[in-house]
Amino acid sequence: MREAEFGPAGNEELDFCRTEIAWLEGLIVNAVRGFAGQIARAEQLKAAFEKEVQAELAALRRRIDAVVCAHDKRVRA
């Protein structure tokens, strides 16, 4: 169809455009995969950090409870 309008050069131009579009699609797919990998890694790091924070909070609660218990024992004594 393009050849009828523009001659053989029209088909070459169309082929070139198709090649460029395919190349750009490949770049986009790779970028999306890369971002997905980064997001997954960030989620893993977040989960690990949250676990660590929860452990630290539990340790602080235990220390606070120990201090309160010790204080209560001294007050009662």
Quick rundown:
The chain is mainly α and 77 residues long.
Description:
The protein has helices at 2-6, 8-76. It has one domain (2-76). The protein has 2 helices and no strands. The longest helix has 69 residues, at 8-76. With 77 residues, the protein is mainly alpha-helical.
Q: How many discrete domains?
A: 1
Q: What class do helices, strands and sheet pairing give?
A: mainly alpha
How does the major sheet shape up?
A: none
Q: Kindly state the number of beta strands.
A: 0
Give the mean pLDDT: 90
Radius of gyration: 32 Å
Give the percentage of residues in beta strands. under 5%
Query: Uncertain segments of ≥5 residues (pLDDT<50)?
Result: none
Termini separation: 101 Å
Shape assignment: rod-shaped
Fraction of residues in helices?
over 70%
Q: Number of helical segments?
A: 2
Order of helices and strands: HH
List the helices and strands and how they pair.
Blueprint: H1 2-6, H2 8-76
Q: Which features does this protein show?
A:
77 residues, mainly alpha, rod-shaped
